[in-house]
Amino acid sequence: MARINDLNMSMKDVLVMLGEGNPGALSVMCQMLKEGPEIDPQSADPFLAVLALDTHEIYGSDIWILYKDICGQDMTKMLGVLRSIQLGHTRESEVKDQIAVPRKAGEPVLDVDSMLTKVRSELPEFGKQAEVKVDLHSPAVNSPRTGNAAGECELEGS
Questions:
Q1: Which of 36, 73, 96, 154 is deepest in the core (most CB within 10 A)?
Q2: Per the structure, how many domains does the chain have?
Q3: Is the pLDDT assigned to residue 102 strictly greater than 90?
Q4: Is residue 55 domain-resident?
Q5: Domain range holding 132?
Q6: At what angle do helices 112-122 and 75-86 cross, to 10 degrees?
Q7: DSSP 8-state symbol, 62
Q8: Average of pLDDT values for 66-94?
């Protein structure tokens, strides 16, 4: 069941709740908010991608696994997987099953490139803009600043 059940929750509260305190998950969600408008200009709001994580019950370390292991730390692919589910090209269970499977580096996972092709067939502007790369291992992103749980992501109310 989705966890966002109070429409008065702040952005910070939503991200912390969905991230379950996992710094990688928080960094990924902040990156989704920052890069989302450039990658997916046809989206009504970059927050919808974060809401999709809740809708599909992808939380905490599973967010990081989806981004790192399945999408190869590529935000265009991450947003593409979520859009692919939204558009009905990919089953939610298919993605969640892959998240749950422990794997070794280099093992095959979902065909994310095929998903992107299908998403782009319906949303031609998806991923066309130059993607800004963010190094999630940089000191700036992983800095434990007070009130800023996700490094460089400035959250409302933080």
A1: 36
A2: 1
A3: no
A4: yes
A5: 11-139
A6: 60
A7: H
A8: 95
Within a domain: residue 3?
Answer: no
Instruction: Check pLDDT > 80 for residue 127.
Output: yes
In this predicted model, what pLDDT tens digit does every residue of 23-62 receive, in sequence order?
A: 999 999 999 999 999 999 999 898 899 999 999 999 999 9
Selection from 107, 4, 103, 23 nearest residue 61 by Cα: 23
Q: Which residue has the higher pLDDT, 92 or 155?
A: 92
User: Are 11 and 135 within 8 A, CB to CB?
Assistant: no
Which residues have a Cβ under 8 Å from the Cβ of 16 and sit 6 or more positions away?
Answer: 26, 149
Alpha-carbon gap, residue 126 to 87, rounded angstroms: 13
At 124, list the tokens.
């031609």
Residue 48 backbone class (left: φ over 0; alpha: ψ -120 to 50; beta: rest): alpha
Residue 153 lies in a domain: no
DSSP string, 80-125: HHHHHHHTTSS-HHHHHHHHHS---TT-----HHHHHHHHHHH-TT
pTM: 0.79
